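Internal tracking record. Fields below are filled automatically when a chain is submitted to the structure queue. Please do not edit lines marked as system-generated. If the sequence contains nonstandard residues, flag them in the REMARKS field before resubmitting.
Queue: standard
Priority: normal
Entity type: single polypeptide chain
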Amino acid sequence: MKRFLLGTLATLGVLLFAFVFEGGNPLNFILPSPLIITFGMPFFAVLAVWDFKTWGRAWADAFAAQTDPARRQASERLWEFWEKLCYLAGIVGFIAGLTIIFASAKPDWSIQDFGKYFSVGLISPLLGLCFAIVGRILRYRVTTRGN
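SYSTEM-GENERATED OUTPUT FOLLOWS
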């Protein structure tokens, strides 16, 4: 568990460091709408297929060896589903952001205004990729801990 947390935090920390190093605003990563879309959509989609008990077992299987191959396979499928949905949620968040940007565009906006809003709109795909990486790590942990 400790290695997973440290590795995941270090992975995200590298991204955040590079972002800030190049002059980005780190507060953009905690904007509510991109977070809600990129985490909430996959979360509720997983719960539409599996129940909370299976979700909990998938977490447990990622951190402890599971000898039951059927349970391990179910956890692998859940994390694979989560990963794919995170990619899709990032795209959905980006499209939703573009829709809002273009719908609220004013005639006097400059290219700098569009650039600023467009760059914030790219946070959703970035968060989606980060959550997908976590899903891939957890799926791999389930796979390797059972062998």
